[in-house]
Each structure stands twice: as structure tokens, then as C-alpha cells.
Amino acid sequence: MAIMTQVEAPGTTAPSLSRRARSRQGRPTTPKHLRSNLTAYMMITPMVGLLGVFVLWPLGYAFWLSLHRSSFYQSPKYVGFAFYRYVLTDPMFWHSIETGLKYTAMVVPISIIIALLLASFIKTLPGRTAGFMKTVVYVPAAVSSIVAALVFTFMYQDQGVGNWLVGLFGVKPVAWLNNPDTALPGVAATGIWLRFGIATLIMLAGLLDIPDSYYESAALDGANFVQRTWYITIPMLKNVILFLFVTEFVLAMQEFQLPLIMTKGGPVDATNTPNLYIFNSFRDNTPYATSFSLAASLLLFAVLGVISMIVFRLVRSSKAVDG
After folding, report:
1. DSSP assignment, residue 78?
2. How far, in Å, CA of 104 to CA of 119, rounded?
3. Residuewise pLDDT in 10s, the chain (323 residues)
4. Element (H, E) at 195
5. Which of 147, 137, 88, 145 has the alpha carbon at shortest distance from 116?
6. Which pTM was predicted?
7. 20 to 30 A from 161, CA-CA: which of 85, 108, 206, 214?
8. How far is CA 310 from the centre of its chain?
9. CATH for 105-271?
């Protein structure tokens, strides 16, 4: 009987095992890569929802309004791309774009160069001193742009710090914000002071990611500071510099508060940036200023997008140092 039990036991479990195997084979299974994608989609769904509600929908609604002749007193009437033609044929729009590009050309390169030099200097400092310098460098970023605009406006007065400095070299007082040739550089100096702090900390993070062995090998080969910076630091910081260039370019082209407070777009529209032009167009007394300013805003959005795409196309990104 014991032998019969041992023989029958395997036979009794075989059908149940085969049924389990058949049930597993017949059940549809999701591939592993699809399960991973599903998890990723679930994680980004909230962000996509917020993006759609607060960015995509307002952008689409603004485009719809720009195609209509609308005001606060009349119902919208479809006019197609008429307002886009009005904006594109307005010389002041192109003048504001030119002014924005000039402002960007002064703010962005100087901010990045100052950030690179300061970050290289902070990297050589010991721990506590480096921490103190990081705090000092970040202070301008914590200052409101309105406060900075007011402070620099007082500095540019006849008896201000700016004329005191140039007076040390025997130069007569300069009407910084009342001269079309110096007004935009004066506003740009304020923008540089506000932006170089964050750029310095970002650049410092990129510098700390570069292995010290690269610099040690270059020093053994006789490379000086300039050569190490040109052949090691700048190539290894290409991703960081690209990020700073694009973000700083977009922010500089959208500058609004500094020229509004310091010069109100003058003198002779020398500091009339694109956003200030759009703001003045919206405040115009014409009945369809809303549609006109929306069309100008979307055209500026297109200009910034195209230039950013060109920059990313010309300067290809690369993997990180530790990638």
C-alpha cells in the first residue's frame, strides 16, 4: 500500500500542474517594456495635464482670439491673419525686435563670461570661503528687478556713482539714460548684474563635475591656465553653456520691467524692447488693441522658438562627463 501511494501521488498532482501551466500560457501577458512605458506615462500624466490647462489651452485660445477682431465691447468677428499682417508691417515691431537682439547681445555673452570667471575662481577657494562667495554671488538674484532698476537709475543721475567713476578719468558727466547711445547699455548693465549670480552657480556646478585628473594631466604636459580653459573647461562645459545661452537669451529677449521703469522705452524708442512694445500696444486706445497685442505676442513666441531651434541645431549637445 505504501508503494501504491508513492506511485499514485505523482500521478494525482500531474493534472493540476498541467492545468496551471495551460492557464499561464493562455493568459495574455504585457511585455516588460510596455509595462515600463505605462509606468512612465502614469508619472508624467499630472504634469501633462497641468501643461495642457495652464499652457496649451491658453496658447490655443490666444491664437483663436488673434484671428478675430475682438474688444471688450463687441463680440469677436473672424478676420483671419489680418492682425498678423498689421504687426509684420509695423516698423515699430521690427525696431523692438532689433532692440531686443541688441540688448541680448550685450547681456548674454557678458553674463556667461563673468559667470565662468567667477566660477573658476570660487572653485579654487577652500570650503568656508567658497561657501561665503557663493552666498555673495547669489545676492543679486534675490533682489527684485524693480528695486535694482530704481537703484541703478539713481546711480545714473548727474551726481550718481556712474558719473563719479567716469569723472575719475577726467570724463564729463554723461546723461546715461537720456542719451540714445548710452540708454540701452545702461539698462543692460542692470540686467547683467541681476543675472550673473545664478549663471555663476550653474557654471560652478558644471566645473565641479569635471575630473581634476584632466587638469593634472594637462599641467604635466605644460599647459597654462588659458590652454586648460580653452581645451578642457569650455569643451566639457558645452552642455552647461548651451543651457545658459538659450535660457538667458529667452529671458533677455523678454525683458520688460527694467526698460519700463528706467527709461519707459525711451529716449527715442532706444530701449523699446519687444515686451514693452506689446505692453504699449495693449494700452493703446484703439478698439482692437487686444487682438493686435495677441498677434504680436505670438509672433514674438515664434521668433524665440525659431532662434532657439537654430541654436540647438548648430550646437549639438553631448553626454555628461560621467555618462
Report:
1. E
2. 22
3. 444 444 444 545 545 545 555 545 555 566 666 666 788 788 888 888 998 888 889 889 989 988 988 776 777 888 989 999 999 999 999 999 999 999 999 999 999 999 999 999 999 888 889 999 999 999 998 999 999 999 999 999 888 888 898 888 888 888 899 999 999 999 999 999 999 999 999 999 999 988 888 888 988 888 888 888 888 888 899 889 999 999 999 999 999 999 999 999 989 999 999 999 999 998 887 778 888 999 999 999 998 888 888 887 877 665 555 44
4. helix 180-208
5. 137
6. 0.82
7. 108
8. 15
9. 1.10.3720.10
Q: How many angstroms separate the Cα of 104 from the Cα of each of 45, 78, 108, 187, 255?
A: 36, 36, 6, 11, 9
Q: Which helix (H) or strand (E) holds 69?
A: strand 68-69
CA–CA distances in Å: residue 320 to residues 206, 209, 310: 10, 9, 22
* Measured CA distances, 172 to 155, 162, 176, 180 (Å): 15, 11, 12, 17
